[in-house]
Amino acid sequence: MKKLLVLLAFASIFNIALADDKKPYDESANAAEQIRAALKTAKAERKSALIVFAANWCGDCKMLDMEMRQGELARLVNDRLSVVKVNVGRFDRNKDVTAVYGNVVK
Hints:
Blueprint: H1 2-19, H2 31-45, E1 48-54, H3 59-68, H4 71-80, E2 81-87, H5 95-100
């Protein structure tokens, strides 16, 4: 019974994330420029830079974005990281940027 409740709770959260019309990964952004700005900000604020390669169609990606913006994790992220969210589309966008950081998808 506990497994079923956990599964249902996960499915409910997952569906909320998928049903959300918000697009956390800007499809028109200049990723290279955003990364340069984040690196500059991180250096000035003595933080680490985090580049999140993701897509708006991806439920896990949307869930990651949602989790990083709430609760204790949001505080940690804001305190320690300069975050850049790079949209990869269907692995057909920002290939030049992903190649620089070790893209394994060709």
